[in-house]
Structures are given as C-alpha cells and as structure tokens.
Amino acid sequence: MSAVERLAVAFVAGYLIGRGVRLAVTLLGAALVILILLERMGYAAVDWARITQDAYSAASGVLERLAQGELPQLDGDSLALVTAFALGLAAGSGLVLRLLSALLRLVRYGQPIY
C-alpha cells in the first residue's frame, strides 16, 4: 500500500470514527437529559457525588500517565498517519465546519459571534 493510500485510509477511518463519536455524544447527552428528568419526577435516584468522584478519578489517572511522559514516540511516517486520522476525526465530528464558520464570522463582523 502506498503512502498516499495509507494517508487516505487514515483520514477516512478518522472521519468515520468522528461521525460515530458525534452520534455517541448525542446519545449520551440525550440519556443524561432523560436521567435528569426521571430524577426530577421522582422515578430515579442518582448519586451525583459518586458520579463526579468516579469521573475525576478516571481523568486524574489519565493525566498522571501523561505527566509521567507515557506518550508514544512517533516517527515521521506514524506522525503523518496520526495527523491524517486527526484531520479526518475533526472533519467527521463537524469541528472543521464550526471552526470555518467562526473564522468567517470573525472576518465578516470583526469579532466572533457564537
């Protein structure tokens, strides 16, 4: 497989995963809204303190590993593939369109309008 084909595959994989991530985040948000509504109506009891504690402990574990320098070393070829994947992920999640839209608003109006 040539270098261009590998970059194209990495971009397409990132794009498709970005679309999947966008769908997963949407479903997670909807589930959270439903859970909050069920709690407010008295159908469910949620221990928000425990959820917050679990989220913080998971995030702190990741941050500790990053602080210890446990990042993979990338050579030139791997870096190109990771970059293509990241660009595909950004395109698939809609991040590129939002950034371009904000940039156009900045150019047109002189300040970002959200």
Pick out the low-confidence regions.
Answer: none
Spell the H/E element sequence: HHHH
What gap, in angstroms, lies between the N and C termini? 43 Å
What percent strand?
under 5%
Topology, element by element:
Layout: H1 3-40, H2 48-67, H3 76-93, H4 95-109
How does this structure look, described?
The chain has 114 residues and is mainly α. It has a domain of 76 residues. It is 80% helix and 0% strand. α1 packs across α3. The protein starts with a helix and ends in a 5-residue tail after the last helix. The model has no long low-confidence stretch (mean pLDDT 82).
Fill in the keyword field for this structure.
114 residues, mainly alpha, extended
Short précis:
The protein is about 80% helix and about 0% strand. It is an all-alpha fold and about 110 residues long. It starts with a helix and ends in a 5-residue tail after the last helix.
